[in-house]
Amino acid sequence: MSVTIRDVAKLAGVAPSTVSRVIAGSDRISQATKERVYEAMEKLGYHPNYNARSLAVKSTRSIGIIMPRSTEQAFLNPFFPEVLRGISVRANEKGYALFLSTGKNEEEQKQAVMDMVQGRRVDGVIVLYSRFDDPVVDYLMNKNFPFVMVGKPAHHASKISYVDNDNILAGKEITQHLIDLGHQRIGFVGGSRQFVVTMDRLAGYQEALSEAGIAYDAHLVIEQDFLPEGGYQGMKQLMQVENPPTALVVVDDMMALGVISALDELGLSVPEDVSVASINDFYISRVLTPALTTVNINIFQLGYQATDKLLYWLENEEADLSPTIVGHELRIRHSTAPVAALNKGLSE
Is domain 1-46 annotated with CATH 1.10.260.40? Predict the structure, then answer.
């Protein structure tokens, strides 16, 4: 026997009309009541079939955007405004509005997504990150709700629609550039290892070292936040090792700003004393002094293509599970130099 709204209402201790208003996303229902209703729905295994054509509810013509846990912190990184620009352009072409969702912690983030999905506020969502053991992705998969990820999923990649760069190759190519310049002591300043992008770029770094016959040194690998402050702290840590690096692979351009700031504070010049190479190619990277050697990952296209995949799902009621890999390009500028030049400078 199928579970009904009346069953949910009885378990939650509310009227059936209250359950209906919670599902419809009414703002007049208290958060405590919403949570009781959602808990009852979960316990009874009740949820609307969002994808069925027979639903009386019309399309919302809205796409949900799921940010990392802290929106304030996310918008300090130019990646998110640029990927949102790509999403907005494609959504606007099809007449869709955007609905932004986040939370201060894991619990708040999942609750915000539940409100968005069960309240039928959006037709589908785009997740702007990929991390290990993410309850939000697990929830969306269990609900079979249309969603696309920007970033390779940590698990079940063959069952999830996603758009990404080849971050392993990007990490390998930027490291190889430094190896080609003669560097042997190459540090790695990465973001949190809970994010797949960090682990993929680290894997590329390790692969390049291995193929060049350079031993991997865990003391040269630092994990910090994806912000200038993270790069600053990471650089301070790296320069305390017994044999500090002559070159650095930084996982994100904003972190590279902090790295360069820390080097300047230590009286070291880029690239005369230490070469710095990064990934993402934000606008600020081109106007820095020196201009930053980095990998352009076509952030706009990541957002545009992710939206295109989601719209395909909404229009065809079927997910496109083939990965969309957006190309990247190494941009060699003035923050990297041959190690010979460094050695010459030190001997003078």
Answer: yes
